[in-house]
Automatic annotation (TrEMBL):
Residues 1-29 form the signal peptide. It comes from the Eukaryota. PANTHER family: CYSTEINE-RICH RECEPTOR-LIKE PROTEIN KINASE 9-RELATED, CYSTEINE-RICH REPEAT SECRETORY PROTEIN. The keyword Repeat applies. Keywords: Repeat, Signal. It comes from Microthlaspi erraticum. Residues 34-140, 146-258 form the Gnk2-homologous domain. This is Gnk2-homologous domain-containing protein. Gene3D superfamilies: Gnk2 domain, C-X8-C-X2-C motif. It holds the Pfam family Stress-antifung.
Amino acid sequence: MATITTFSSSLKFWFVLCSFSFLSLKTLSQPRVNHLHTFCNDQADRFAEASSYDENRKSTLKYLRATTSDATYLSVTKGLNADIVYGMYHCRGDNTKRSKSTCRICVRTATTLIAKTCTNQKEAIIYYEECMVRYSDYSFFGLLETSPKFLTSSPSNFPDKSRFGDTLSSKMDKLITKAASTTLWPEPYLAHDQQRVNDFDSSYVVESLVQCSPDIDSGNCTKCLRLAVQDILDCCSRSRTAQNFLPKCLVRYNTSSLPLNDPTTPKPRPSLGVIKGNKIFERTFTAVITASALALVGL
């Protein structure tokens, strides 16, 4: 009997150990998402705990969290009249092409954090590098909004003599045109590519991406992207890495150095992108910083 007890205990130990190892490996294999900023609009109306708006907000975020199987964009409306809540999520199309679970994990994480951070504001938006989630008591569908925005760049710059600023401006013009004129699903209004650049005594690869929310039209997509690019050119045109997130579009690029004698030229990735909307709308938000600025990752 003693031998049987020892054997059973050993089996139990190894079962628990294997289960723990499996769960650890599963956790490690999940895509990592990077929180950038949470904006809670303190100028918007407030709602009371357990109110109809509170319940509709919970229902909206729950629906977004549960409906991230394939789509990179989803909008939803819950409630009526003064208690109505409009919500949406939008994932980066290039990440979704690599791994659909990235969008799902990002939206689930974002919907949880935005509810905890913006406890009673009727309007909020949260930015991750991989997705954005927002809700409001007004319908923002189809509107071009230029705030709140989140822009960040690397401290590492190209030298003054570099032509990188001109290269970046030209490249973004082409990508904006491509994104705004493409109507392919499931990632409309998306364009990204890689390009090798030889610049004085350096050689590097530029990976760039532009993307608009599918609820605006082509003209407003172009306007949004041009504003986002201009922000970058005005503040940090020599930065080796930068990204600018607006409610209805995003722009990002990353550079990596190459030896001058490296003959390798990266093959451009396919670009996608389009949908509708027609109004221009701006609102002012108060930023709530819930995490330190994270180092930029490659596209």
